[in-house]
Amino acid sequence: MKFKTKLLSSEVTSKDLWTRRKTLKTLSTSLALGPLGLANSFAAPREKDRDFIFSHAKKFSTNENRTEFSKASSYNNFYEFGTDKRDPKKYAHELQTSPWSVTVHGDVLKPKIFDLNDLRSLAPLEERVYRLRCVEGWSMVIPWIGYPLSSLIKKVLPTGNAKYVEFTTLYRPEEMRGQRRSVLDWPYIEGLRLDEAMNPLTLLSFGMYGSLLPTQNGAPVRVIVPWKYGFKSPKAIVSIRLTEKQPQTAWMQGSPKEYGFYSNVNPDVRHPRWSQSKERRIGELRKRDTVIFNGYGSYVSHLYEGMDLKKFF
Ligand SMILES: Nc1nc2c(c(=O)[nH]1)N[C@H]1C(S)=C(S)[C@@H](COP(=O)(O)O)O[C@H]1N2
Ligand SMILES: [Mo]
What we know:
Number of helices: 8
Helix content: 10-25%
Shape: globular
Largest sheet: 9 strands, mixed
Number of strands: 14
Bound molecules: ligand MTE, molybdenum atom
Radius of gyration: 19 Å
Strand content: 15-25%
């Protein structure tokens, strides 16, 4: 896998990254680098990597064992590259992720097209170790790097009409071979209620495991919503639009009986074809019990007070 971004002055292979990452881990434990982690600090940082500085957000992070980077970057859902779990890693290099810009618009007073570098430097980057649970019944623990999406939304000044946020993934079938087949109604669209998008857990993410996002994990920018099923965490975003009406998401469009707008992790609400009460943590053999809101209830349950979560699934 090759990163094609402005940040990395030279291309590195995943093997390089993995060994370097291990070095970093050793370094940071032995030298106790303190709360500020400097990505790629294992060697003299190359000119353009110096911006990728982040702190570790302990408050928002789980202490559970992290999924191995090699697994998190090779077992992926990213239908733009194919429906097999191995397809994203195999074909993601066909996508050019630089230059990149994200349009933030809709019911806002200050719409703006952000160049990726401007977007990334809009707020301090934090590392947050979150659980991610796929509706298919597997889960991972991943150290993401990003900042709260609320920081961005506040900048563009939502109007009183804004009730929802719609995210759109890049549409570029020449480079995303999965889009040449009509598996989903492209482009991939996801949505959140505005208060969900403003929740401190909701992350605009640019990196993971100390480095930039691999393309198969959604480079150069994606959203992470840890209390919802994985598909609510859209990758390779080009548009963030505030709206009055609830967005029609790609999965609702494709299969409305199976995928609702909310899609909160909920062991008591079955997927029509299988139970959601258990899950397999990637790397483990025994199944675990699935926890309501993926274990993030103390942060988010108030968002759904009085709502029938079986109806609003
Ligand atoms: N654009 C886009 N975003 C997407 C998907 C996709 O197919 N296309 N798959 C979703 C699903 S089903 C999951 S489980 C997560 C997986 O994220 P990961 O590969 O980084 O673990 O990405 C989500 N975001
Ligand atoms: Mo998923």
